[in-house]
Amino acid sequence: MSPDAVTPLRHRMIEDMNARKLCAGTQRGHIHSCKRFAVFLNRSPNTATTEDIRRFQLHLAEAGVSICNRNRIMTGLRFLFRVTLRRLDLAGEIYHIREPQKIPLVISPDETRRLLAVASNLKVRTLLSLGYGCGLRASEVVRLKQAYRQRAEDHSGRAVQTPQGPQCMLSPETLGLLRQWWKARPSRYDAGTPVAERWLFPGNRRGKPMTTRQLSRLFHETAEAAGIKKAVTLHALRHSFATHLLERGTDIRTIQALLGHDKLETTARYTRVATGMIAGVESPLDLLLQPRKKPKKSQKDPPPA
């Protein structure tokens, strides 16, 4: 696979990825991984040997590539060898490294309250309220359309399906902000677009929503104005949404459904930062030391006279 030209091998790999409906971002990542491997080999990957796979993985480790990026690169190569080239022997030489699980960085309810209070305008407050109040990812927030708001109105603010899949709940406060924003949002690019397909947060280019980079910049500006000193990112709003629900006693499987997690283990990591939930647990030792309550004697009916 040449790093520059679209070779027959790359064309076939793209066809395989399209047939499996891999998203554009995943396809770009896989192609970039294979290009990197081709540069390392200085020849086409379809001539690779098991020793080449071994040397490339050692090269990534010695170059200081992070575990996350190493796994991402090798996932792209595994697709090439397993699916496109049908070289299961080479695919079997690829290994992934278990990443150490990071504790999510969250902001407290008081910090969240300050963050929303100092939002510079209605747009920023609506964006951040969706991130925290619904637990949406940045990419999910910016790609919301009018159809989503209308579904929320039809369901009276109860849980509705987002375009990306997970169930999302809308509080009356957030729904009210969305109503206000829909009336105030810029509409210069709405001509010719059905109402249901119009972006809630249109970008600077016709037919495109605002970018996640723009949203991230607005978050950091607001966090600085709120005096939040933690090195938080926009994703901290999603972490805080889950953690605060858990501390208030929401069932963890309900949170899993709201976040759209496939595995419960992914949601369970929030138990490590939900200190309020842990603080409310009573030790079994304390229960042992408590005096036993004597059972009440049942009152029998007096004998008839």
Task: Give an overview of the whole structure.
With 305 residues, the protein is mainly alpha-helical. The chain has 2 domains: 8-91, DNA polymerase, domain 1, CATH 1.10.150; 109-277, hpI Integrase, Chain A. It is 53% helix and 1% strand. The chain has helices at 8-19, 24-41, 50-62, 67-84, 88-91, 109-117, 122-133, 138-142, 146-154, 172-184, 212-225, 236-247, 252-259, 264-268, 275-279, 284-289; strands at residues 160-161, 167-168. Strands 1-2 form a two-stranded antiparallel ribbon. Helix 7 (122-133) runs antiparallel to helix 10 (172-184) and helix 9 packs across helix 10 (172-184). The longest helix has 18 residues, at 24-41. It is extended, with a radius of gyration of 27 Å. It starts with 7 loop residues before the first helix and ends in a 16-residue tail after the last helix.
Question: Taking Cα atoms only, what radius of gyration do you get, to the nearest Å?
Answer: 27 Å
CATH superfamily of the largest domain: Intergrase catalytic core
Largest sheet: 2 strands, antiparallel
The number of distinct helices, counting runs of at least 4 residues, comes to: 16
The chain-level structural class is mainly alpha
Tally of DSSP β-strands: 2
Through-space gap between termini: 104 Å
Write the element-wise H/E pattern from the N-terminal end onward: HHHHHHHHHEEHHHHHHH
